[in-house]
C-alpha cells in the first residue's frame, strides 16, 4: 500500500489508498518550497497550532480549580472530570470501532458496484 | 385543549398539492413556486391559533384533519423552514421529479405534525414514504433505484405495522387520538414499532445509511430532515416517558458513532450521524419529563437545521467534484472557503459547541437525566456528546476539507447553494447565541439556562479533549475503501444467498425425481391408454348388424312366448 510519501504502511488492508494518479498535487506539494504552500498547511503553522491547542487545554483543566458546578453523581465532581472523561471515552470509542471494524469491514464493492 | 375552530385544509396539503404545479410552469417561474409554497406554508403554520378543525365524518370515524398546539406548530414550522432552504439549495436541480417529490414530502411532514387523529396521520405518513422513495429514485442509476426499492420495502413494512397498530388500538379503545398511547398493549406496541422503524431505531436502522447517501446532491439534504423527525414528533406526542425508549435511544447514539467512525463515504458518515442524533431525541422522550420532552423537541428543531447544513456542505462538495469518498477528498478548504466555513459551523453545532444551536438544545436532555438521577444514562450521554464531536464534529470536516491535499481545487458552488448554507449557518449561530425565540416555541414553559460558567467550561473541556483524542488516534482512523456490514446484510446478502441455495436444491431435487416420476406417470398413462385409449375395447364400435339380428331374434322369441305359450 502506498501512502502520501510513497512509503508502505503496515497493518492496513491492501487497497490503493492513494495512488500517484489520485493525487498529482501531492507530489507537487512535497517538492515545492514551504512558503508556496497555503499558510495553514505549513509545518510551522501546524506546530504553532499544536502549541496554542496545548495552552487552551491546560487552561481549561486549570479552570476547574476556580469554577464550581453542581456535581450530580460524585464522580463528575472530580478534578478536570470532563477533560479526562472526554479523552478516555473517545479513545475507547475509537478502539471499539477499530475492533468491530476488523469483524465487519468489507471492501466497498461487497454488494456489487451497480453503476458506480 | 382545542379551543378554536380552524380551517380543515391542512397547511401541508397546500404544499403537497402546490408542488404538482411545478412541472407545469416555466423554468423562470419555478423558483417562485419552489420558495413561495413553503414560505406560504410557514406563514400558515406560524399564524395557526391553538384549536382543531371541524370533525369530518368518514365511514364510522370522526377525523380531525388539523389540530394545532405548540408541539405540532414547532414541527410544522421547522419542516416548512427546511422546505424553504432545501428549495433554495436545489434551485438548479435538473430533475423536476425530485423537486416535486421533495416538496410533496415536506407537505406530508407538515401534515403529520398537524394531524388531529391517527388515520389522518397515517395518510400523511404514507405520502411521505412514497414521496421520499421518489426523491431517491429520481437520483437515477441502478444503484439509486435498488437502494430506493430496499428503502420502500422497509417502509411498507413499517407502514403495515403502524396501520395494524392503529386498527387494533381502535378496536380495543374506540379512539383514534394520537395522544397517550400505551406501548404495553398490542395495538400501542405495534404503533410504537412502526414509528420507531421510521426513527431508524434498531434492528432495522440500516435502511437510513443504505438509502439516503444514494440520493442526489440536493436529495439527501431533503431526506435528512423529515422522516426521522416526524417519527420523533409522534413519539413525543404519543409515547412520552416510555422507558424502553431510553435504552433504544442510547443504542442508536453509540451505533451511530461507531459506524460513522468506520465509514469512508462522507455522506454515509452524516447518515449514521442522523441515527446518532435521533438517538438523543428518543432518549429524551424515554426520560419523559417536561425538561426532557422540551429538549427532544428543541433538539429535533436545531438538528434539522445543522444536519441539513452539513449535508448541503457535503452536497456542494459532491456537486463540484463528483466525489463522495474521504479517500478521494481533502484539502478543499483552499478553494471552497464558504462551503468549508458553513460545514464547520454545522459540525460545531452538531457537537453542541457553546454559541451554536446544538448547545442550547441537547444539554436539556442531559440535564433532564441528571434531574431524574439516571446516572448511567447521564454518563453515557456525556460520553456520547464527546463521541459526536469525534465522528461528525471533526471527522467530517477534517477528511473532506483538510487532511491530505487531494489536489482538487473546485470553486465554491453556485450562489443559491451558498445562500442556503449561509442562511442555515446563520440560524445555527443565531439560535445558539439567542435561544429565547426557540424556547418560546417549545411545548412546555422553559426554565432552563444553558449559559452558566460551569456548563460552558465543562462542555469545552469535553469537546476539546475529544478533539485531542481524535488527533492522537488519527493513525488508527486512516480511511480505507471499505464499508461496514450492518443489518441490511440480512436482506442484501443473506436473503439472496438463502434464496439462491434454496432454488438450487429445489432444482436438484427436481432433476433427481424427474426420471423416477416420469416412469411412474408414464405407467399410469400406459394403463389408461390400454384400457380406455382409442384402441382399447371400451373405445371400439361393435358391428351393428349382429346387434340388429340379436334384437330381431329376441323380438321373435317374445312374440312366440306371447301368442303361443300363454
String of helices and strands of chain A: HHHE
Are there runs of chain B of 5+ residues with pLDDT below 50, and where? none
- Biggest pleated-sheet summary of chain B: 3 strands, mixed
**Radius of gyration of chain B, Cα only, in angstroms?**
33 Å
Q: Biggest interface, which chains? A: A-B, 63 and 67 residues
The radius of gyration of chain A is 22 Å
**H/I helix tally of chain A:** 3
| Total beta strand runs of chain B | 6
Helix content of chain B: 55-70%
Distance between the termini of chain A: 23 Å
Estimate the helix proportion of chain A, in percent: 40-55%
Helix count of chain B?
A: 20
**Coarse structural class of chain A:** mainly alpha
Keywords:
heterodimer; A: 116 residues; mainly alpha; 3 helices; B: 566 residues; two-stranded antiparallel sheet; 6 strands
Blueprint of the fold:
The complex is a heterodimer of chains A (116) and B (566).
Chain A: H1 24-31, H2 43-63, H3 81-104, E1 105-107
Chain B: E1 4-5, H1 11-19, H2 30-46, E2 51-52, E3 56-58, E4 61-63, E5 67-68, H3 70-89, H4 96-113, H5 118-137, H6 142-173, H7 186-198, H8 206-211, H9 219-238, H10 244-262, H11 266-287, H12 290-321, H13 337-350, H14 357-371, H15 375-401, H16 415-433, H17 436-441, H18 453-472, E6 482-484, H19 488-532, H20 544-565
Parallel strand pairs in B: 1-2
Antiparallel strand pairs in B: 2-5, 3-4
Overview of the molecule:
Chain A is mainly α. Chain A has two domains: 1-32, no CATH class; 39-104. Helices cover 46% and strands 3% of the residues of chain A. Chain A has helices at 24-31, 43-63, 81-104; one strand spanning 105-107. Chain A is flat and about 55 Å long. The two termini of chain A are 23 Å apart. By secondary structure, chain B is mostly helical. Chain B folds into three domains: 1-237, no CATH class; 240-486, no CATH class; 511-565, no CATH class. Helices cover 70% and strands 3% of the residues of chain B. Chain B contains 20 helices and six strands. In chain B, the strands form two sheets. Chain B has a three-stranded mixed sheet. A two-stranded antiparallel sheet of chain B has the order 3-4. In chain B, helix 11 (266-287) packs parallel to helix 14 and helix 14 runs antiparallel to helix 15 (375-401). The longest helix of chain B is centred in the C-terminal third of the chain and has 45 residues, at 488-532. Chain B is elongated and about 140 Å long. Chains A and B meet through helix 1, helix 2, helix 3 and strand 1 of A and helix 6, helix 10, helix 15, helix 18 and strand 6 of B.
Amino acid at each position: 500500500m502506498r501512502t502520501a510519501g510513497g512509503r508502505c504502511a503496515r497493518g492496513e488492508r491492501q487497497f490503493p489508498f492513494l495512488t500517484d494518479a489520485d493525487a498529482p498535487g501531492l507530489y507537487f506539494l512535497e517538492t515545492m518550497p514551504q512558503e508556496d504552500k497555503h499558510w495553514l498547511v505549513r509545518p510551522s503553522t501546524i506546530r504553532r497550532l499544536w502549541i496554542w491547542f496545548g495552552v487552551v487545554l491546560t487552561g481549561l483543566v486549570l479552570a476547574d480549580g476556580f469554577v464550581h458546578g453542581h456535581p450530580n453523581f460524585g464522580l463528575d465532581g472530580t478534578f478536570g472530570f470532563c477533560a479526562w472523561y472526554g479523552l478516555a471515552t473517545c479513545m475507547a470509542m475509537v478502539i471499539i470501532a477499530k475492533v468491530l471494524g476488523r469483524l465487519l469491514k468489507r471492501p466497498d464493492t461487497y454488494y456489487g458496484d451497480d453503476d458506480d | 385543549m382545542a379551543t378554536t375552530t380552524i380551517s380543515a385544509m391542512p397547511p401541508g396539503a397546500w404544499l403537497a398539492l402546490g408542488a404538482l404545479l411545478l412541472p407545469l410552469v416555466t423554468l423562470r417561474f419555478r423558483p417562485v413556486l419552489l420558495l413561495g409554497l413553503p414560505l406560504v406554508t410557514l406563514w400558515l403554520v406560524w399564524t395557526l391559533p391553538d384549536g382543531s378543525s371541524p370533525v369530518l365524518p368518514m365511514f364510522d370515524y370522526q377525523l380531525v384533519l388539523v389540530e394545532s398546539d405548540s408541539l405540532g406548530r414547532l414541527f410544522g414550522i421547522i419542516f416548512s423552514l427546511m422546505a424553504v432552504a432545501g428549495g433554495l439549495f436545489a434551485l438548479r436541480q435538473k430533475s423536476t421529479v425530485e423537486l416535486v417529490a421533495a416538496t410533496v414530502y415536506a407537505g406530508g411532514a407538515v401534515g403529520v405534525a398537524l394531524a388531529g387523529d391517527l388515520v389522518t396521520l397515517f395518510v400523511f405518513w404514507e405520502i411521505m414514504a412514497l414521496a421520499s422513495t421518489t426523491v431517491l429514485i429520481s437520483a437515477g442509476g441502478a444503484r439509486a433505484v435498488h437502494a430506493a426499492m430496499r428503502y420502500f420495502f422497509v417502509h411498507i413494512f413499517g407502514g403495515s405495522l403502524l396501520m395494524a397498530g392503529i386498527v387494533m388500538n381502535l378496536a380495543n379503545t374506540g379512539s383514534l387520538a394520537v395522544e397517550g398511547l400505551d406501548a404495553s398493549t398490542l395495538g400501542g406496541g405495534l404503533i410504537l414499532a412502526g414509528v420507531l422503524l421510521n426513527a431508524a431505531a434498531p434492528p432495522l436502522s440500516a435502511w437510513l445509511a443504505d438509502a439516503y447517501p444514494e440520493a442526489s446532491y440536493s436529495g439527501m439534504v431533503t431526506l435528512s430532515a423529515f422522516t426521522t423527525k416526524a417519527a420523533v414528533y409522534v413519539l413525543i406526542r404519543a409515547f412520552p416517558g416510555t422507558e424502553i425508549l431510553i435504552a433504544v435511544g442510547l443504542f442508536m447514539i453509540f451505533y451511530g458513532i461507531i459506524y460513522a467512525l468506520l465509514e469512508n463515504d462522507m455522506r454515509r458518515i452524516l447518515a449514521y450521524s442522523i441515527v446518532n442524533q435521533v438517538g438523543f431525541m428518543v432518549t429524551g422522550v424515554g426520560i419523559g419529563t417536561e425538561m426532557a420532552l422540551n429538549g427532544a423537541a428543541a433538539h429535533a428543531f436545531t438538528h434539522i437545521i445543522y444536519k441539513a447544513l452539513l449535508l448541503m456542505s457535503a452536497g456542494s462538495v459532491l456537486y463540484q467534484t463528483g466525489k463522495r469518498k474521504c479517500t478521494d477528498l481533502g484539502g478543499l478548504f483552499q478553494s471552497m472557503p464558504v462551503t468549508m466555513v458553513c460545514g464547520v459551523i454545522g459540525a460545531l453545532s452538531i457537537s453542541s459547541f457553546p454559541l451554536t444551536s446544538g448547545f442550547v438544545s441537547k444539554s436539556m436532555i442531559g440535564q433532564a437525566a441528571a434531574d431524574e438521577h439516571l446516572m448511567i444514562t447521564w454518563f453515557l450521554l456525556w460520553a456520547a456528546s464527546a463521541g459526536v464531536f469525534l465522528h461528525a464534529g471533526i471527522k467530517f470536516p477534517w477528511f473532506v476539507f483538510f487532511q491530505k491535499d487531494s489536489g482538487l481545487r473546485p470553486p465554491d458552488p453556485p450562489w443559491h447553494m451558498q445562500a442556503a448554507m449561509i442562511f442555515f449557518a446563520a440560524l445555527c449561530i443565531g439560535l445558539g447565541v439567542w435561544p429565547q425565540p426557540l424556547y418560546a416555541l417549545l411545548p412546555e414553559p422553559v426554565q432552563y439556562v444553558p449559559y452558566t460558567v460551569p456548563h460552558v467550561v465543562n462542555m469545552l473541556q469535553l469537546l476539546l479533549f475529544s478533539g485531542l483524542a481524535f488527533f492522537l488516534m488519527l493513525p488508527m482512523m486512516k480511511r480505507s475503501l471499505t464499508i461496514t456490514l450492518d443489518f441490511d446484510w440480512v436482506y442484501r446478502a443473506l436473503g439472496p444467498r438463502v434464496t439462491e441455495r434454496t432454488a438450487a436444491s429445489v432444482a436438484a431435487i427436481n432433476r433427481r425425481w424427474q426420471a423416477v416420476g416420469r416412469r411412474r406417470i408414464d405407467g399410469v398413462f400406459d394403463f389408461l391408454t390400454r384400457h380406455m385409449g382409442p384402441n382399447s375395447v371400451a373405445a371400439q364400435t361393435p358391428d351393428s348388424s349382429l346387434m340388429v339380428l340379436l334384437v330381431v331374434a329376441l323380438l321373435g322369441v317374445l312374440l312366440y312366448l306371447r301368442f303361443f305359450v300363454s
